[in-house]
TrEMBL record:
Functional description taken from the UniProt entry: Specifically methylates the N3 position of the uracil ring of uridine 1498 (m3U1498) in 16S rRNA. Acts on the fully assembled 30S ribosomal subunit.
Gene3D superfamilies for this protein: 3.40.1280.10
Entry GO terms, CC: cytoplasm
Keyword Oxidoreductase: no
Domain Ribosomal RNA small subunit methyltransferase E methyltransferase per the UniProt entry, residue ranges: 70-239
Entry similarity comment: Belongs to the RNA methyltransferase RsmE family.
Alphabetized GO MF terms: rRNA (uridine-N3-)-methyltransferase activity
EC numbers, comma separated: 2.1.1.193
Name of the protein: Ribosomal RNA small subunit methyltransferase E
Organism, as annotated: Limosilactobacillus albertensis
Any Pfam family the entry gives: Methyltrans_RNA
């Protein structure tokens, strides 16, 4: 069943935003009586039926559904800005499907691309739309926020969490295998976790030292070296297993 996010408080009748209405009526060929799922401002899911199609699409709430697809912990992924536009889009789309709560792109020492001025605004707006579409497709209860962070120092100060880790390839090379599992074991429902990933070329030792001094623990992601767009997805799959399937 099609799902749409509407930033409105629960009421007997909901007006769909124009973009969602166009998709429902023109692309999905919905009509009076078609049932859809709505996620409203309270992050709850409601079963609704199309009651009016012109001049605006309106839906009548039938019932509230006991549906919650969110991870029991809030995960923020912080990624050094990759050098191609496709990689941030892939990270946002797939990490949304896997349950991330927030995706932050920060200026790392080895970032080749830099998002500044109007470019930054356009990038974030496009990525936010990708997150919304992926949240609808994967039947999330919320749309992850996509944000830009100007530096590692700002990332460290502005994104607190119950647990904070940084994926570092040197940990994997040295045979470290338990640090990430130990961090997961210490999490409880309602906790938050920040995971930091480097761009192509990885993070510098200076950056790792700075994060270690701020209480961010370096962890390995297995014995293989992962690409910058693969590592966050590996992490999301691992935390889903640890918190939802084990």
């Amino acid at each position: 069943m099609q799902r749409y996010f509407v930033n409105a408080d629960p009421s007997a009748e909901i007006t769909l935003p124009s973009e969602a209405a166009h998709h429902l009526l023109k692309v999905m060929r919905a009509g009076i009586g078609t049932k859809v799922e709505l996620v409203l401002a309270d992050h709850c899911v409601y079963l609704a039926t199309v009651s009016v199609t012109e001049p605006a699409a309106k839906l009548k709430i039938i019932q509230k559904l006991l549906s919650n697809s969110e991870l029991p912990v809030s995960v923020t992924l912080a990624c050094g800005i990759p050098k191609t536009k496709e990689k941030p889009e892939l990270i946002v789309q797939k990490s949304t499907e896997l349950g991330a709560d927030k995706i932050v792109f920060f200026e790392a020492a080895r970032s080749i691309s830099h998002w500044q001025g109007s470019k930054q605004k356009r990038k974030i707006e496009r990525l936010q739309k990708i997150a919304e579409s992926a949240a609808e497709q994967s039947h999330r209860n919320k749309i992850p926020l996509v944000e830009y962070c100007k530096s590692l120092d700002a990332l460290i100060s502005d994104y607190p969490a119950t647990k904070r880790v940084v994926a570092w390839e040197e940990s994997a090379k040295q045979g470290e295998t338990s640090a990430l599992a130990h961090q997961f074991n210490g999490l409880q429902a309602g906790d938050s976790m920040l995971a930091v990933f480097g761009p192509e070329g990885g993070l510098t030792e200076t950056e790792i030292t700075k994060m270690n001094n701020a209480g961010i623990e370096a962890v390995g992601l297995g014995p293989r070296i992962l690409r910058t767009e693969t590592a966050p997805l590996y992490f999301m799959a691992a935390i889903s297993y640890a918190m939802e399937l084990s």
